[in-house]
């Protein structure tokens, strides 16, 4: 398999496993947006509500893809400064480290990503007030806009995925990988909005610990060069 395909698949798995984190971080937002959709003065047919919900997530995933392209472009810049192989090794180690830290956070053993999330608050404080102008949700364009803003919320899971895609060194691959990551998070984030407090089983420590441990295994594989190094030498 090509390195591009491997990065995209790994990003999807990271989104799928790591999205348990979304129950804690995004459950409130997802529930609020779901309530705003139900109470807005629009046609309340289930198909209409589902379409608006998907518009939220299209905006969110679109923001992830934009960030993925930007970060992968930064990887290209890093390659110009350090050389291709050195830069890819650095990016791979960084991606693996972030995945291990994310796994530790998801299991509840250590939240080492909190300082990085606080850095992201600087951008979030500037753009989050824009959401107020788009509420209530009266149509697809407003839902898409709210989702696009939501995609920039500080999140250790997203930052871990971005660290992963930096290793690709290709903006298109970075964007596609973050799109795959967003799709991986989709079932859990939608469930957080629709199930609300009834998602208790998914919040159980044992479920989070299993998912976190699997993410740490992926991260350890990257960190030791077992996942991507072969692809780098054979593009």
Write the layout of secondary structure elements.
Layout: H1 3-18, H2 20-25, H3 27-39, H4 46-82, H5 84-107, H6 114-127, H7 140-150, H8 156-166, H9 171-195, H10 205-223, H11 229-233
Characterise the protein shown here.
The chain is mostly helical. The protein has one domain. Helices cover 77% and strands 0% of the residues. It has helices at residues 3-18, 20-25, 27-39, 46-82, 84-107, 114-127, 140-150, 156-166, 171-195, 205-223, 229-233. α3 packs across α9 (171-195), α4 runs parallel beside α7 and α4 (46-82) packs antiparallel against α9 (171-195). The longest helix has 37 residues, at 46-82. The chain is globular and about 50 Å long. The relative contact order is 0.25.
Keywords, separated by commas or semicolons:
single chain, 235 residues, mainly alpha, 11 helices, disordered C terminus
Distance between the termini: 9 Å
Global Rg:
18 Å
| Global outline | globular
Major sheet description: none
Share in helix: over 70%
Low-confidence stretches: 227-235
Strand content: under 5%
Mean pLDDT: 79
Structural class: mainly alpha
Number of domains: 1
The arrangement of helices and strands along the chain is: HHHHHHHHHHH
Secondary structure tally: strands: 0
What is the overall number of helices? 11
Short structural summary:
This protein is an all-alpha fold and 235 residues long. The protein has eleven helices and no strands. The longest helix is centred in the first third of the chain and has 37 residues, at 46-82.
């Amino acid at each position: 398999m090509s390195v591009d395909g491997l990065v995209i698949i790994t990003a999807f798995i990271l989104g799928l496993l790591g999205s348990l984190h979304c129950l804690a971080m995004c459950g409130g937002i997802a529930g609020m947006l779901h309530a705003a959709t139900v109470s807005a003065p629009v046609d309340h047919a289930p198909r209409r509500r589902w379409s608006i919900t998907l518009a939220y997530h299209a905006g969110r995933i679109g923001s992830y893809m934009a960030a993925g392209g930007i970060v992968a472009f930064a990887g290209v810049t890093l390659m110009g400064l350090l050389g291709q192989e050195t830069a890819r090794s650095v990016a791979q180690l960084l991606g693996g480290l972030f995945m291990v830290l994310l796994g530790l956070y998801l299991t509840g053993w250590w939240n080492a990503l909190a300082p990085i999330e606080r850095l992201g608050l600087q951008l979030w404080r500037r753009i989050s007030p824009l959401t107020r102008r788009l509420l209530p949700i009266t149509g697809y364009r407003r839902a898409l806009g709210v989702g696009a803003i939501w995609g920039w919320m500080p999140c250790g899971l997203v930052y871990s995925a971005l660290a992963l895609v930096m290793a690709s060194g290709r903006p298109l691959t970075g964007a596609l990988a973050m799109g795959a990551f967003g799709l991986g998070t989709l079932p859990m984030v939608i469930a957080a909005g629709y199930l609300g407090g009834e998602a208790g089983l998914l919040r159980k420590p044992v479920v989070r610990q299993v998912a976190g441990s699997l993410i740490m295994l992926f991260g350890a594989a990257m960190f030791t060069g077992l996942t991507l190094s072969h692809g780098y030498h054979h593009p």
